[in-house]
Every structure is written in structure tokens, then in C-alpha cells.
Amino acid sequence: MFTAAIITLSRIFVAIAAAGLLAMMFLTAFDVVMRYVFNQPVRGAMEVVEYLMAIVVSFSIAWCAHEKAHVSVDLFMTRFSGKVQALVHIFTSCIAMLFVFFMTWHNILHIKDVYASNITSAVLGIPVYPFMGMMSLGLAGFSLILLKNMLDSAWEVFKQ
């Protein structure tokens, strides 16, 4: 049940990331056409693309971890037994999960300061804090996927 909920959450996140990427693509293409054909660039297009990029990266990283699509070097690991590989994976997942958890926690703490400071984008005046909140949400999803992967590896160790 826990695993299914996390996988569903990461699928929702990757769908949001895909929609953000699609919006970035269309906005950039429209901005280029407007700039070079009509000499009228889209005002604030770069700011919107920057905010969308924060959403795309933070929401897609959990799915990438679920699919185990991150870059890894298996030069030495393939020489070890499955149990040793699982133990190393548990250790590295635990370190990564703690690191991402602290990144999420400090990002949440920083949101309060950004909200209180009323920081906005330069051209369109879009507040920054909602996008920081979405980044925190994406990072929290990533840490849950790392927890799931760590528990899966632990299951492999104890199953043997």
C-alpha cells in the first residue's frame, strides 16, 4: 500500500512535470516567433520559463529515481554478490534520503523568509514562494522514493 501510494504520487508529479515542460516548449517557441517575425517578444517569458523549470526538475526527479534512471557507475558493484550490492544500495539510499530530506526541510524554512520579504520576479511581479513550495513538494516526493528504494533493498537482503 505504501509503495503503491508513493508510485502514484510520483506518476502525478511526472505528469505535472511533463505539462510544465510542454508549456515551456510552447512559450519559448511562441516567444521566438513573436520576437523574430513581429519584433514583439513575449513580456516576462524568460521568468515564466525559469519558474516552470523549477517545477519540471523537482517534480520529475522522483520518477527518475523510481525508474532507477539516474546515472550510476557499476564498474565495481557488478563484481559483488547481490546481498553486498543491496547493502551498499541501502547505505547510499539512506545518505541520499537524509540529504534530500534536509534540503527539503531547509527549503521549507526558507519559504517563510521569502514570503515575509515579499520577493517577486522582476518583470511580471510573480511571487517566488509558491514555486519554492512546489520545489519542496517535489523534493519530498524524491525522498519518499529513496525511502521506498531503500526498503526494497533491505527486503532483498533479508529475503536472502
Total separate domains? 1
Question: How does the overall form come out from the CA principal axes?
Answer: elongated
What is the tally of beta strands? 0
Note the gap between the termini. 23 Å
The level of helicity is: over 70%
Helices and strands, in N-to-C order? HHHH
Mean pLDDT comes to: 91
Task: List segments where confidence is low: pLDDT < 50 over at least 5 consecutive residues.
Answer: none
Q: Could you say which structural class the secondary elements and strand pairing correspond to?
A: mainly alpha
Largest sheet: none
CA radius of gyration: 20 Å
**How many DSSP helices?**
4
% residues in beta strands: under 5%
Overview of the molecule:
The protein is an all-alpha fold and 160 residues long. The protein is 78% helix and 0% strand. Helix 1 (2-37) crosses helix 4 (129-159). The chain is elongated. The model has no long low-confidence stretch (mean pLDDT 91).
